[in-house]
Design goal:
Blueprint (H helix, E strand, L loop, with lengths): L2 E7 L10 E9 L21 E3 L20 E3 L20 E3 L20 E3 L20 E3 L20 E3 L20 E3 L20 E3 L7 E2 L11 E3 L7 E2 L11 E3 L20 E3 L20 E3 L20 E3 L20 E3 L20 E3 L8 E2 L10 E3 L12 E4 L6 E4 L16 H4 L2 H11 L2 E3 L18 E3 L6 H18 L8 H10 L17 H10 L4 H12 L1
Parallel strand pairs: 1-2, 2-3, 3-4, 4-5, 5-6, 6-7, 7-8, 8-9, 9-10, 10-12, 11-13, 12-14, 14-15, 15-16, 16-17, 17-18, 18-19, 19-21
Antiparallel strand pairs: 20-23, 22-23, 24-25
Length: 568
């Protein structure tokens, strides 16, 4: 009697014992640089249930592969496939199919024969449309078609009534079929980075929807029908052109994350305070001039970002946000903070960069859990003495150019109120000017750069042609110039002596010379960049020998070259 045992392996194992039958159910050939499907796989077509061929260079699937009737999961992402063969219809037990990151342009219509399919991952393929047969995959629960070329969905797409996750990000969709309302079990819908100009009203009928991505589209308004999505927990409407938010948004009573960044919002409705379960609210990069007082009703809010707006003040009700952990209000026009902000005692990170703050309230010392506080680019003259209570503060940013996270503060008396305040060399803060932040392309000066480049050169050899022949054969013109790089000490002394003697022989001083001749001789006289040694009446020892060599040499440049070569 033979026995069977289940083995998970990368390679085909050998049968070592007679009478024992190996049953291979899982094979993994991922990242093996394969150009074709290994033939050994076909030896297990009866028992193989899972096959992984991820990240290879396979450009074609052989017909024999589809004889693996027991195959339940086929994973071949990140290969070079250009089509999915029609023989895939024979995989009647297939439940999971991953063909992402290939060059597949379409699904064969007979994929409808894979009745058991529940998960299809086909993202990052140039798929332009879905065949009608695709809508017959009635057991499909998860469909991923991100980063494709879809312009529309089949009219009867709603037949996929068991779908729970539908991701269609980065396509060219503009509308959704009316039958989409039949997706009663849909929980996650991602339509981000498409071409929608309005929110599909049909979405209001998907009552079980919990996550909705509509970011990076061209939406201008959010209709009140969105308030009917009472089970919605996550809503991303960032990077659109939304100018206003309907008051019926309050109907999304289960909402926990609301992302409205990078829109054109000028105000928030008061009803936003009715989103009692909200934990994350992002309204940064809009045109808000004020925040509603009802913001204080969001008692569970943990993250609040209102940066890059036109806010001049914060409502006092912000002090009711007792669960707030992260608060950002960068790049606004805030002149002061409400004293009630000190009641946000659970805040660990607060950023108020690039505002017009001139002072901070003493109550900020009650925010004892602060770890990071950014106050750079404001107009503060000092800090309240209550800052000494912030024992957990690990980073206090007072300037964009600050080298350390914490700069020591010292106590001094306020010149007017005589109260104790904290200060250091960074106070008073200076407003930032735009000219201090010019881009490299705006500030680049080719002429100045060339001058600096020349100055960076350490050695320069200049060769100039003589403009006229000199009758005086004793005159020698030196064209070698040495810049900051120094000579070795002994060679340096030798060259100094030679230059001194040559200059003395070439340009004897005369009190009878005219002013013009004097200027001419000054220009011709060689002036080394280092100080000359004091003159000596009689060179002795080694210098006497050098003097003799110079007199017998016609070209001082040649002699200097020979000395340099011999010493170096």
């Amino acid at each position: 009697m033979t026995t069977k045992r289940k083995i998970i392996g990368r390679l085909v194992p050998c049968r070592c014992f007679r009478g024992e039958e190996e049953v291979i159910s899982v094979l993994d050939y991922s990242h093996c640089s394969l150009q074709q499907v290994p033939k050994e796989i076909f030896s297990f077509e009866r028992t193989l249930e899972e096959l992984y061929l991820d990240a290879n260079q396979i450009d074609e699937l052989p017909k024999q592969l589809f004889n693996c009737q027991a195959l339940r999961k086929l994973s071949i992402p990140d290969n070079d496939l250009s089509n999915l063969p029609t023989t895939i219809a024979s995989l009647v037990n297939l439940r999971e199919l991953d063909i992402s990151k290939n060059g597949i342009q379409e699904f064969p219509d007979n994929i409808k024969c894979c009745k058991c399919l529940s998960v299809v991952e086909a993202s990052v393929n140039p798929i332009a449309k879905l065949p009608e047969g695709f809508t017959q995959l009635l057991n499909l629960t998860q469909l991923f078609l991100n980063d494709a070329f879809l312009e529309y969905l089949p009219a009867n797409f709603g037949r996929l009534s068991k779908l729970r996750i539908l991701e269609l990000r980065e396509n060219h969709l503009k509308t959704m079929p009316k039958s989409i309302h039949r997706l009663s079990q849909l929980e996650r819908l991602d339509l981000g980075s498409n071409e929608f100009t309005e929110l599909p009203e049909v979405l209001e009928q998907i009552h079980n929807l919990k996550e909705l991505w509509m970011d990076n589209n061209s939406l201008q308004t959010i209709p009140g029908c969105i308030g009917k999505l009472r089970h919605l927990r996550y809503l991303d409407l960032a990077k659109n052109r939304i100018e206003s938010l309907d008051t019926d948004i309050s109907g999304c009573e289960s909402l926990e994350d609301l992302l409205l960044s990078s829109n054109m919002l000028q105000h928030l409705p008061d009803t936003i305070g009715m989103l009692k379960k909200l934990t994350t609210l992002k309204v940064d990069d809009n045109q808000l001039t004020s925040l509603p007082n009802t913001i204080g009703s969001l008692s569970l809010l943990e993250e609040f970002d209102c940066s890059c707006n036109e806010l001049e003040s914060l409502p006092p009700t912000i002090g009711y946000l007792h669960n707030l952990r992260t608060f950002s209000a960068d790049e606004n026009f805030l002149v002061e903070l409400p004293r009630e902000i000190g009641n946000c005692k659970n805040v660990t990170v607060m950023s108020l960069r690039s505002n017009k703050l001139e002072f901070l309230p003493d109550e900020i010392g009650q925010m004892t859990k602060l770890h990071v506080l950014n106050l750079s680019d404001n107009r503060l003259k000092n800090l309240p003495y209550t800052f000494t209570k912030l024992k957990d503060l690990a980073a206090l940013w007072l300037s964009d150019n600050q080298s350390k996270a914490l700069i020591p503060l010292q106590t001094e008396a306020h010149p007017e109120t005589k109260q104790r305040v904290l200060t250091n060399y960074m106070f008073p803060q200076q407003p930032r000017h735009d000219e201090d932040y010019q881009s490299d392309s705006d500030s680049f000066n080719p002429t100045l750069w060339e001058e600096q480049r020349q100055q960076r050169m350490t050695v320069a050899f200049e060769f100039e042609e003589k403009k006229e022949e000199e009758d005086n054969s004793g005159k020698v013109e030196i064209n070698l110039k040495r810049y900051p790089t120094p000579y070795p000490e002994d060679l340096k002394n030798m060259v100094k002596s030679v230059q001194n003697m040559v200059g003395k022989n070439q340009h004897p001083l005369s009190t009878n010379c005219s002013g013009t001749n004097m200027e001419s001789r000054k220009q011709e006289q060689y002036e080394p960049p280092w100080p000359m040694p004091p003159k000596e009446a009689q060179p002795t020892g080694r210098r006497r020998q050098l003097s003799t060599n110079v007199k017998s040499t016609k070209n001082v440049n040649d002699w200097l070259d020979s000395v340099l070569c011999s010493k170096i």
